[in-house]
């Protein structure tokens, strides 16, 4: 089976890795988004899929879009039987989807029709979902709406963040893509139309999605922290509720790990304080008052600093006053 592979980030690289060791596929070319600036230095560097393709000696093409006839003709000239797509990030017009005889298959990180769109992993965790999965679908012009060819579910652990779930789903996606191609070659695939009445959407995250709101419950905060880790990061601004001697100015930080403190004693302790107020360090967490009790900050990274445990952060930053998370 002759393929053109289309993908850009780390999630897609796992699918390309799986195809490279699958004897039933020949990869004719790899399509990625154009290289873009990344990191603190804003250096232009190749993405994960491009790096892998170059390492394996595969031809790489990086059109900005498929709006011109020359780009479409070049793709058509490959003579691919099928397009395998994973987190490509560019819209494929109908003229492109119609090119391969076996169609275009997409690896999507949700149990479609739930969570169509750009951020299904993060949005699932932020909503408190206990499971997610991967769907292989036949692509149509509408976003993530095509019939499902194969689907596999996976549990989400209570402590898992979006980065950890992403890595598991990426590997699952590669395995499921290969299984789909095996079944396709054997004539064992059945297309299942998506139930539009169950469709939900996972909008793309931006930096503002990282801000924590302590008017929410401890469980909601926990899900939010996990969902926005590692990007854009769970952001908090700490200000002084009451200044003491030696107090510094406000502190901006990323909460990297936390957990709900849900016993009755914690809830009673929280009732005497304001929402967002930090309580004294206990064991390995720094409690913050939230809507239904306390949320414990376990690990955090102050702006311009290194990652710290709750104890190290409290000892180094919270001297000289009472602190409160800014609204």
Description:
The protein is of the alpha/beta class and about 325 residues long. It has nine helices and 17 strands. It has helices spanning about 10-20, 50-55, 70-75, 95, 120-125, 160-185, 220-225, 265-270, 310-315, and strands spanning about 1-5, 25-30, 35-40, 45, 60, 80-85, 105-110, 115, 130-140, 150-155, 200, 235-245, 250-260, 285-290, 295-300, 310, 320-325. The strands form four sheets. Strands 5-2-1-6-7-9-10 form a seven-stranded mixed sheet. Helix 1 (about 10-20) runs parallel beside helix 6.
What is the number of helical segments per DSSP (H or I, 4+ residues)?
9
Spatial strand sequence of the major β-sheet: 5-2-1-6-7-9-10
Separation, N- and C-terminal Cα atoms: 56 Å
Helix- and strand-based class?
A: alpha/beta
Question: Can you summarize the main beta sheet?
Answer: 7 strands, mixed
What would you call the shape? elongated
Low-confidence stretches: none
SSE pattern: EHEEEHEHEHEEHEEHEHEEHEEEHE
Helix content: 25-40%
Beta content comes to 25-35%
Rg: 23 Å
Overall pLDDT score: 94
Tally the beta strands: 17
State the main characteristics.
327 residues, six-stranded antiparallel sheet, seven-stranded mixed sheet, alpha/beta, elongated
Topology:
Layout: E1 2-7, H1 10-20, E2 26-31, E3 36-38, E4 43-45, H2 48-55, E5 60-61, H3 69-77, E6 82-86, H4 94-97, E7 104-108, E8 116-117, H5 120-126, E9 131-138, E10 148-155, H6 162-186, E11 201-202, H7 218-227, E12 234-243, E13 251-261, H8 264-270, E14 286-290, E15 293-302, E16 308-309, H9 310-317, E17 321-325
Parallel strand pairs: 1-2, 1-6, 2-5, 6-7, 8-11
Antiparallel strand pairs: 3-4, 7-9, 9-10, 12-13, 12-17, 13-15, 14-15, 15-16
Helix pairs in contact: 1-2, 1-6, 5-7
């Amino acid at each position: 089976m002759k393929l053109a592979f289309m993908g850009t980030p780390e999630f897609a690289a796992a699918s390309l890795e799986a195809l490279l060791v699958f004897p039933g596929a020949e990869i004719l070319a790899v399509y990625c988004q154009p290289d873009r600036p990344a990191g603190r230095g804003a250096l232009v560097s190749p993405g994960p899929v491009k790096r892998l393709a170059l390492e394996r000696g595969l031809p790489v093409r990086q059109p900005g879009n498929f709006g011109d006839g020359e780009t479409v003709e070049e793709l058509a000239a490959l003579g691919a039987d099928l397009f395998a797509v994973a987190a490509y990030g560019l819209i494929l017009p109908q003229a492109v989807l119609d090119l391969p005889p076996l169609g275009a298959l997409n690896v999507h990180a949700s149990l479609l029709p739930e969570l169509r769109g750009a951020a299904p992993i993060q949005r699932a965790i932020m909503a408190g979902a206990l499971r997610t999965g991967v769907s292989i679908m036949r692509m149509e012009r509408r976003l993530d709406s095509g019939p499902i060819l194969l689907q596999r579910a996976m549990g989400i652990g209570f402590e898992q963040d979006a980065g950890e779930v992403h890595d598991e789903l990426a590997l699952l996606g590669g395995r499921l893509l290969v299984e789909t191609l095996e079944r396709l070659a054997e004539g064992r695939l059945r297309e299942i139309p998506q139930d539009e009445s169950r469709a939900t959407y996972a909008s793309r995250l931006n930096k503002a999605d990282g801000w924590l709101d302590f008017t929410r419950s401890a469980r909601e905060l926990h899900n939010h922290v996990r969902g926005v880790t590692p990007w854009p990061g769970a952001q908090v601004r700490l200000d002084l509720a009451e200044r003491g001697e030696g107090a510094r100015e406000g502190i901006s930080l990323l909460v990297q790990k936390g957990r709900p403190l849900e016993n009755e004693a914690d809830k009673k302790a929280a009732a005497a304080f304001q929402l967002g107020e930090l309580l004294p360090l206990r064991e390995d967490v720094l409690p913050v008052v939230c809507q239904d009790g306390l949320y414990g900050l376990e690990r955090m990274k102050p702006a311009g600093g290194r990652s710290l445990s709750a104890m190290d952060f409290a000892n180094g930053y919270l001297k000289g006053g009472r602190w409160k998370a800014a609204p």
